[in-house]
Design goal:
The protein is mostly helical. It folds into two domains: 20-205 and 226-311, MFS general substrate transporter like domains (Growth Hormone, Chain: A); 313-331 and 349-399, no CATH class. Helices cover 77% and strands 0% of the residues. Helix 2 crosses helix 8 and helix 6 (132-143) packs antiparallel against helix 7. The longest helix has 40 residues, at 161-200. The termini are far apart.
């Protein structure tokens, strides 16, 4: 059994870590995290509508390629982590930047869907080599007891990735198309991250601060922890939370554009989410001082679910519109709960009185009354009147009636030939 490190050995290890700590590593990793996340992750949902329209590839297939890249990233992180633990972050993160640049260029020039998917699968390895995990490992080893401050700074900077690159991607796509946008982003990724990782992470890699257990003991300890109920429940909770977060990130831009927003407006909305991440991470520090680990974890996951429900139209439908219908006597109110039971939130089915039908009815009445499509688009919150016209005109109850009436009037007044 290995001996625990003495006070002298621990102090010596900490001193070596401080002496070997590269001064440029922290600012460099802040910049490379913003760039890597912005290009390899947040640019995709912004460019997805342009990509689908230009290539004809289904949104499901394109999104599936990106999702597969995330899975590859998780799997590749294990062997890459072992290499980083032995040799340091410079080789891993520099190679990841080179691979990421090549993959983004391959995505930009993909002539077919199979090539596009293959490029994203390779990009998953680049994600594993350049995203938070290797950066956190490097800062933890170099900063030692002071790692919390360094990790906080990097995560605060990383939260700005979508705020920077979502609007930038939308602007590039408007002027260069999605392929041109990805080509420019590949150049940015290469110019920013390759030299930063190669030059700023050159410091000696310090040894682990504590003695390493025997291989058999370490393996046994990992297996025992992985089988515990708290570990399995925390893993499931974090997995589901990450799934919902990425589902919102990927679906936000297409959802907003389908509702009439311009791609630029949708990209800015996605970027505001990045600013929210940064503000949330600033607020985490006082939260950590006042709450325990369990209460803090449950609060953050629950608040994340509440925040994401804002873009779900069923929230207003079930919490505002349905109660109003019940109060007006259109539908039955919720049944009173029995003693000891929670109140029900399930309303009786009434598709004909749903909010979706309400919007269509309102639009149809306005159009039939002669209101301009521009005014209607403004009232419905659509930035593009053409979207309003495509969506609602076929619901007009008297579509064409005025035209028929005018034609009949003209024919009835026309003189009859002898």
């Amino acid at each position: 059994m290995p001996r625990p490190p003495t006070d002298t050995q621990a102090a010596t290890g900490a001193e070596n870590s401080i002496r070997s700590r590269p001064r440029a590593a922290l600012p460099a990793l802040c910049v490379t995290q913003i760039t890597s996340w912005g290009i390899l992750s947040y640019a995709f949902p912004v460019l997805l509508p342009h990509l689908s329209k230009d290539t004809g590839w289904s949104t499901t297939a394109s999104t599936g390629a990106f999702s597969a890249a995330l899975l590859i990233s998780a799997l590749a992180g294990i062997p890459l982590g072992r290499i980083l633990d032995r040799r340091g972050p410079r080789a891993v993160m520099t190679a990841g930047s080179v691979l990421g640049t090549a993959c983004v260029l391959a995505i930009a020039t993909a002539p077919s869907l199979p090539v596009f998917i293959t490029a994203w699968l390779c990009a998953g390895v680049a994600m594993a080599a350049t995203f938070y995990p290797p950066a956190f490992a490097a800062l933890t080893r170099w900063w030692g007891p002071n790692r919390v401050r360094a990790l906080t700074i990097v995560t605060l900077a990383g939260g700005l990735a979508s705020a920077v690159f979502a609007p930038l991607s939308a602007t590039l796509a408007d002027h260069l198309g999605w392929r041109g946008a990805y080509a420019v982003l590949a150049a940015v990724l290469a110019l920013v991250t390759i030299p930063a990782h190669a030059l700023a992470l050159r410091a000696p890699w310090p040894p682990p601060p504590a003695a390493t257990p025997a291989p058999g003991e370490a393996e046994q300890d990992r297996k025992s922890v992985a089988r515990t109920r708290p570990f399995l429940m925390l893993t499931a909770a974090m997995t589901l939370s990450a799934l919902t977060v990425h589902a919102v990130v990927i679906g936000l831009v297409p959802l907003m554009t389908e509702r009439g927003a311009t791609p630029a407006q949708a990209a800015w909305a996605l970027g505001l989410g990045g600013l929210g991440q940064t503000l949330g991470r600033i607020g985490y520090v006082p939260l950590a001082r006042r709450t325990g680990t369990t209460a803090r974890t449950v609060t953050l996951i629950a608040s994340g679910g509440t925040r994401r429900s804002v873009i779900n139209r069923s929230v207003w439908h079930t919490q505002t519109w349905k109660p109003a219908l019940a109060a007006a006597g259109v539908i039955s109110p919720l049944a009173a709960p029995a003693e000891g039971e929670k109140p029900s939130r399930v309303w009786e089915p009434s598709r004909e009185h749903g909010f979706h039908v309400l919007r269509h009815t309102y639009a149809s009445i306005m159009l039939d009354a002669g209101e301009s499509i521009v005014s209607l688009a403004k009232w419905l919150g659509h930035s593009d009147p053409a979207f309003t016209l495509r969506t609602y005109t076929h619901f007009m109850p008297q579509a064409g009636a005025r035209g028929r009436k005018s034609l009949e009037s003209w024919l009835s007044d026309a003189p009859v030939s002898p």
